[in-house]
Amino acid sequence: MNAVASGPRSSRQKSVLFCTECSFENPVSEGWLVVSDGDERTIVCPECGHVADHRTERSAPATKCAD
Ligand SMILES: [Zn+2]
């Protein structure tokens, strides 16, 4: 199964992140290990150490097409 990355905006809950390795799930802001290094942010599963999300914010202006 794929991680829940994108989907319909209708039922928008807290962004819950799933670990594909051990099925750990929690909102990103709760429970996950968030490692910030400069412009990079890595979200690591606290249960098994799997990197669930990794992103760089360099050269990516904070412009989301939110509306
Ligand atoms: Zn895990």
TrEMBL record:
> Known InterPro entries for this protein?
DUF8106
Q: Where is the DUF8106 domain?
A: 13-55
Pfam family membership, one: DUF8106
Q: Which domain of life is it from?
A: Archaea
Protein name, please? DUF8106 domain-containing protein
What organism does the UniProt record list as the source? Halorubrum trueperi
